[in-house]
Amino acid sequence: MSYDDVEIEDMEWNEELQSFTYPCPCGDLFQITKEDLRIGEEIARCPSCSLYITVIYNMEDFQDKPNKKAEPPKPQSVAVA
Amino acid sequence: MEENTVVQESDDEQDIWSWGAGTDGQLATGILQDEHTPQLLRPLSSSLGLVTSLSCGGAHVIALSSGGRVLTWGRGTSGQLGHGEMVNCLHPKLVNAFQDSVVTHVSAGWNHSGFVLENGAVFTCGDGSFGQLGHGDYKSQNLPLRVSYFVSKRVEQVACGMRHSLVLLKGNSENRVYGFGLGKRGQLGISTEKVKSTSLPQITIGLTNLEIVNISANGDHSAALTADGSLYTWGRGFSCASDESIPRLFEAAVTVDEVALGWNHALLLTRKSKEEIMPIIEKKVLQIAAGAEHSVLVTDNGLIMTWGWGEHGQLGLGGTDDQVSPQVVSLGNTSATKHAACRVFCGSGFSFVLRNCSQTRETK
Description:
Radius of gyration of chain A: 13 Å
Organism (chain B): Erythranthe guttata
Shape of chain B: globular
Largest interface: A-B, 16 and 28 residues
Protein name (chain B): Ultraviolet-B receptor UVR8
CATH class of the domain at 5-59 in chain A: Alpha Beta
RCC repeats (chain B): 14-67, 68-119, 120-171, 175-228, 229-272, 302-357
Strand order of the largest sheet of chain B: 2-1-26-25
Pfam family, one (chain B): RCC1
Number of domains of chain B: 2
Oligomer: heterodimer
Keywords (chain B): Repeat
Radius of gyration of chain B: 19 Å
């Protein structure tokens, strides 16, 4: 059973892991790559335990289209006002 | 994250035990591995005296010594250890920033830390991406930085959750609780409107003129306890209940002495559970602690009991099975002549026990 449903905007982009991440209750991070999202995968797994979450996102945001910007929307605003 | 009561000081010996998830060094065992049974640690420091309290976060721990010194260890990749670097630390290490200060209260969140000084100043460090450090920006800090918003106020407690923080002021002012960081689930309690986040502290509404004695934060939840044992909760709803964006009184005919928040559950220690034998465990309960998905209690005869999620050995029962009712943890033999006073502390996927042993103290 999925531990939680998490919106993509609540996940953080982790440069080192090249993945979107969200805290796992074990202390590690649930992880999913852009490629996973591109092909419609919605399960983000924790490498340390059996838990996983369901990622809520719009698949179209992760498709490479010439007219659309390739980068997905920022998962969260980190801009300083 | 962790409620932060001070253990009665004594000159007697102290044992510290840890178990559960350990791959970031959070168990202070010196090795990066999970432990399924309680591990007796070497004294954290030879010169600092006894540890009076611990606060355990996502994968790091803050220890407060009897002299008001602070030691940290575990995951440090967001700067949450306050050592001026962004690396994990396998062994307890003194936070030099507080060398000349007396720290009275600490709190470890998912990846950030809060420290309150005797003079009422509050400092934060670690992950600041959601504004949870309260400095008016979204930057992370690897050294404790004073939260300047409170420079003319006296802070009593700080509570760090997953991506938010709460502060409780000393004294009798009208509004004593503040929130900052992520507010999406209502965990800041600062507005009935939707709040994404705030990087500057704002007053938590709905607690005006209440005599708050304790604040707690874990996951996306927040709680405050009043002197007369009333509990207020706000933030993410438990078991599919809707989120509460302002503090709501927990209405039950009980006097609450302690609250321990997990990520999807909460424990309440009522006055009654300290005075009367609890049916399931057939003991009185003195103290409680909650990890993200596990729970720990201490009975009046010094037993430690655990239940909940066990995959990383966080129940300390020797295996990785989940438990649906409290099970006794074996801490090794205590001499029958010794009186041991235990306190328990939980991080997301791990557990700690402070056991103060006294040869002379009489058991009440």
